[in-house]
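Hi, here's the filled form for the chain we discussed.

Project: internal
Contact: R.S.
Residues: 195
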Amino acid sequence: MNLNLDIFKIKSNNVVPKKGRILIAEPFLPGSYFNRSIVYIVEHNANGTVGFILNKPVDFQVKDFQNEFPTYEDKIYIGGPVSIESLYYIHSFGRNIEGSIHIQDNLYWGGNFEQIKSMINDQIPLLNQIRFFLGYSGWDKEQLKEELNEDSWLVADIAPELVLSHDKELWSEMVKEQGGKYKLWQNFPENPSMN
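And the returned structure, exactly as it came back:
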């Protein structure tokens, strides 16, 4: 019996990586960081790519990593394997946070950390307006291209509101949204040998 493994061949339909798009991990991409991950691209240029994993929360709060940080109850996420000891954030406060870098629509990353702390101290509601990450995902200039050629990632667009939504089923939902054969990816077990 011949198996049709074309289901794992990724056809990007000319959707290329760029700032504001996502990388959807193929179902069996190994490694604890990228297994069934959604990586939001915040920078993509001739020197490389930077992004943050949107669907890997950890059981810590920001104050566990920043002693002087005010009480803030929201989740923190693993952004990727690079600089895992550093804190990063994506937000929708725009230029109100000095030094923020525009990604797309009303989404920005980074900026003045003291201003973020002041907003929390002033009890400004931040739910679905900011996400904190430990570390980031990074690729050198040819590295991501090689991984795309190896069918490791599907490049897709994402609605900006989903980036800050804390949706724990984001991988399955984004795979389903791609339609066609990609919908079937969600039916595969994470570890085929456990099936």
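Let me know if anything looks off before we file it.
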